[in-house]
C-alpha cells in the first residue's frame, strides 16, 4: 500500500485534547525521520506480550498509523495509564489499538487499566465500524483543513495558547 504519512497511534491523544494541538503534532511528524513507531519498550512496566502493530486509515490519502499497545492477551489489547479520572483523550488511541489487534485476531477490544492507586478498575473499549470512520474523518480534517484550538484543562498553559491569544 502506498502512503506518504506515518503517524503514531498516540496522535489521537493530541487530537482528542485539541484539534490545533493535533495539527501541530501531525506537522511535526511529517518531518521526523526517526519516528520511533516500532520501538521496543525496555524500561517500562510490562505484563503480557507486546508488538508493534499498524493500520491504514484513509484521510484524503492513505496514512499509516503505528503503535505498540502495552500488552496483548489473545484478542485483548491492554493500555496501562497513570491518568487520573477522565480518560476520554485515550479513547481514540484505544479504538485504533483494537483495530490494529484485529490483524492478529478476528475480534479485538482494548482494556484501559489505570495504574494509579484509588482509581477505577478499568475501562473496556469495544469499537464498532462507525468509530474507525469517525477517527478517519477526524484525522482527514486535521491534515487537510485549518482547525481552531479550544481552551481546555490540558491546553490552558501550553505553547498552543500563544498561537490563540484570545484564550
Give a structural overview:
This protein has helices at 11-17, 19-31, 91-101, 129-144, 160-163, and strands at 5-8, 53-58, 62-67, 71-73, 76-81, 109-114, 123-125. With 167 residues, the chain is an alpha/beta fold. It has a single domain (5-163), classed as Alpha-Beta Complex (Lambda Exonuclease, Chain A), CATH 3.90.320.10. A hairpin with an 8-residue loop joins strand 6 (109-114) and strand 7 (123-125). The N and C termini lie far apart (42 Å). The model is unreliable at 34-43 (pLDDT under 50).
Q: Assign the CATH architecture.
A: Alpha-Beta Complex
Describe the strand arrangement of the main beta sheet, using strand numbers. 4-5-6-7
Give the CA-CA distance, first to last residue: 42 Å
Pattern of helices and strands: EHHEEEEHEEHH
The strand count comes to 7
Count of alpha and pi helical runs: 5
What fraction strand?
15-25%
- Percent of residues in helical segments? 25-40%
Low-confidence blocks of residues: 34-43
Basic shape: globular
Radius of gyration: 16 Å
Structural class: alpha/beta
Q: What is the number of independent domains?
A: 1
Key structural traits:
single chain, about 170 residues, alpha/beta, Lambda Exonuclease, Chain A, 4-stranded mixed beta sheet, 3-stranded mixed beta sheet, about 30% helix, globular
